[in-house]
Amino acid sequence: MHSTAAPAPPLSIGLIGNPNVGKTSLFNALTGYRRHVANYPGVTVDVGSGPVRGCSSPIELLDLPGTYSLAASSPDEAIVADVLNGRFPDSRRPQAVLAVVDATNLSRNLYLVSQVIETGLPIVVALNMMDVAEARGLAVNVGLLAERLGVPVVPVIATRPKSLESLRRELERVAGGNAAAPPIPPILPIALRDEVSKLCEAGAPAGTFAETVRLLLDQPESRGQLGLHSDLPAPVAAARARLAKAGIEGAAAEVRARYAWIARVTADVVSRPSRPVRTWSDRLDRVLMHKVGGAAVLILVLFFVFQAIYTWASPLMTWIDGCFAALSAWSVETLPDGWVRSFVADGLIAGVGGVVVFLPQILILFGLIAVLEDCGYLVRAAHMVDRIMRAFGLSGRAFIPLLSSFACAVPAILGTRAIADRRERLLTILLAPFMSCSARLPVYVLLISTFVPDRRLLGGWVTLPALVMLAMYLVGVFVAVPLGWLLKRVLFAGAATSFALELPSYKWPRWQAVVHRMMSAGAKFLLPRPGRALDRTRGEAAGLGLADRSGGAGVVSGARGGHRHAGDDLQPRFRHG
After folding, report:
1. How far is CA 332 from CA 284, 433, 550, 571, in A?
2. How many Cβ atoms sit within 10 Å of the Cβ of residue 295?
3. Nearest 5°: phi and psi at 51?
């Protein structure tokens, strides 16, 4: 009898990078959208995981949240630091790191790379957006950059799969054990490096070089987020006191040291044109970011979304409704009279049809949000509403979570983890449920179909039902604004935090990513969840003869505008609210 050894687990590589550098695009291109949530016990932040395609060795890629620094000031940044330092006992620490860097802005991106180098993990740098850099007249000397960093640097264009072959070969080399951790460069001041070395040799509480740096420089609340002890042991407190005497204290000293090192690394690496090249993104921003014109465009875009949800989905909803009505009528004619026919026609078919009929609206809503986000417009919208949101204690960072609440409040609340300020994060969480999520959309449609006539205005370009739907959505906004103003002055007093968000270049949406997001939203809408008990209850009631049998086929068709069956069709849908 032969015993076979268990296959070795795949190499785990952490994918890290600043926001808006194409990290998720690269993850999707390397894994083919085969994404699942990694298992990190007790963590609510979504960490994606997927196998890299096209490699001879099994490689698992961890899609970590975007972050500018490992000095954690938000839950997103804290989870990145925790994963890279292996603080989860039930999960493996990544064996290597794939750092995504924006080729058009090396100085800012290399700040994070300098911190990752200090973790002691092998690193591969993916120099992304090479096409955007070329369009701006920038030329990057990749070989010189790799030499100065001491790590492999691979130029890629995440939106072009053919450009990723060199990166896959480099990842295979890492998976084969042919990559070692790069030596820690002399980035930090000598006095700080000496103190870190002494604490590491003495068995500092943090253990590694990178964590000891955080222990010496970060504030207590940041150390708490990192899982380090807020109460400093005596050796660490003494080291901090010596550094303070030497003028090395807090984040300012670290920022100066890292950017000085970055300036040395990038000297003569990037060639710039004598005159700045104006791209088509710059030209679009002159209109879309204008104080008056940009606001008008934003209002039109939001109205277009609501108009499309109602107008585009209507033919599909009518077709789905007719299919289920025909199926219900067929079951009434085919099955013998009794509880079986009532269960199938009035319970099973009507219950499922009452949910599926609203699927086109869900797909259109999530698809349009995905298009706006992927093309780079949502970030601009956040900048434009920043001044307005400050009136009730929020910054532009809260705009995208609040806008996402129109799709679903649960992922929107999870999205607030990127807001570093705790007061602003809690206020955003409290206001998010006031936005009308997609769960209320079918109810709105049912009420509008029943009570609002289908009149066309402005020469047929605008319909009255779409205006009413927009008004119903705005009710939640009008309630949230004064409530936010009140909470700001009662529970969350204080000035709004400074707002700085990078504007990525406009680009055509990746239709594969848009379709993938639509299918994911549709699957979550249809797949079983605890609320499905209402469907089962309806089916059981029909089977026991408790449901209305006055019109088996009419139960489904009532979803499109009949007064008689409106209550029946509202019942199964309330479970999503």
Report:
1. 58, 41, 11, 22
2. 15
3. -80, 140
Rounded CA-CA distance 155/574 in Å is 50
Give me the long-range contacts of 252-257 (CB less than 8 A, separation at least 24). Answer: 253/189, 253/192, 253/217, 254/71, 254/188, 254/213, 254/217, 257/187, 257/188, 257/189, 257/192
As a whole number of angstroms, the distance between CA 221 and CA 73 comes to: 8
CA distances for 90 relative to 59, 322, 411, angstroms: 19, 51, 25
Q: Residue 183, exposed/middle/buried by CB under 10 A (0-12, 13-18, 19+)? A: exposed
CA distance 217 to 498: 22
Q: Rounded mean pLDDT of 8-31?
A: 86
Task: Judge whether residue 564 has pLDDT over 60.
Answer: no
Contact (Cβ atoms closer than 8 angstroms) between residue 354 and residue 325: no
Phi, psi of 555 (to 5 degrees): -60, -45
Using the structure block, give the residue that is written with the tokens 């010189």.
144
24/48 Cα distance (integer angstroms): 10
Neighbours of 289 (CB within 10 A): 16
pLDDT band at 125 (very low <50, low <70, confident <90, very high): very high
Contact 555, 357 (CB under 8 A): no
**Which structure tokens are listed for 534?**
């209402």
* Residue whose pair of structure tokens reads 């939203």 in the numeric block: 521
Written as six digits, the tokens of 468 are: 């009413």
Write out the two tokens for 326: 């025909």
The model's pLDDT over 491-527, given as tens digits with 9 standing for 90+, comes to 776 665 555 666 777 878 878 778 877 887 777 777 6
Q: How confident is the model at residue 334 (pLDDT cuts 50, 70, 90)?
A: confident
Q: How many CB atoms neighbour CB 541 within 10 A? A: 17
Q: How many residues does the chain have?
A: 577
Q: In angstroms, rounded to a whole number, what is the distance separating the alpha carbons of residues 356 and 324?
A: 9
Residues paired with 232 in a beta bridge: none
Contact between residue 150 and residue 141 where contact means Cβ atoms under 8 Å apart: no
Of 195, 205, 212, 197, nearest to 233 by C-alpha is: 205
If one counts every other C-beta atom within 10 angstroms of the C-beta of residue 343, the result is 22
Select from 264, 368, 382, 396 the least CA-distant residue to 310: 368
C-alpha angle 295/300/302, rounded to 5°? 95
Backbone angles phi, psi at 131, to 5 degrees: -70, -40
